[in-house]
Amino acid sequence: MQSKPPGDVTASLVATILTCYRELLRLPNLRPSSTVDGLFGNLVEVCCSTLDEEIVKGVLTHPRIIAITNPLRQLCSDGEFQLEAHWANLVMEKKSGEEANETLLNFTYYNNYRDLTRMEWNALASATAGRLLEKFVVLGCGPLPMTSICIAEMLKSQGGAVVLSVDRDPWAVSKSSELCGHLGYGLQNMNFTCFDVQHGAFELYDFDVVYLASLVGLTDIGKLEAVKCVVKAMRPGAILVLRSAHALRGLLYPVSLARSASRFHTYSILD
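The structure corresponding to this sequence follows.
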């Protein structure tokens, strides 16, 4: 792709993104299907491409792309929710916990979540010099709480470790709680609650590590405000794991401006 003149590459990328956006808008719903999966697959392929900075800037600053960035992120958020709900239902259909866990292993992004969480875990170990971390909270867990599940798996050796999963959607909280119970995670280690961290005070002082999901705050400013609210509720010395995006991935997820937040010190950036 990059063998073409930068202007041609930029124009081609812009056209592809706009086409996917228009086609997604035309669909009656974003539940998983060959059409939905294909359109989101095309978007992900484009946005995860390795491109020169000049081309990335050209796409992101194109007037027609600027106009659709926030609504495109909303579509991606809705699509991800539908994908998670679909897989949560597939897992819940299995009669035994063993069958449920085997089904979960086939989730489209299972390996992505597992590998990302492991990288974050290594970064946490480095940042805390091996200090014992026992209380975790995941803000924006969704109906398929993969991050919480991955954390719980790594904490199995720590009998007293606790993971709290939070989402603003009551159905997502109910589904994720039911799902984790079916997978065999006990309430002594996995807790769930419904709360919108962007619209109210949520106490985070007791937690060692706070995860903020990529789709909490769908605009760049919204993400920054969410980070400020979260950091304000955390105790000094606690760690915020902030999932964000860069380059063209910023069309799928909001870009973090977290370094502007007070009391915020960056330990590590993972790409």
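The chain has nine helices and five strands.
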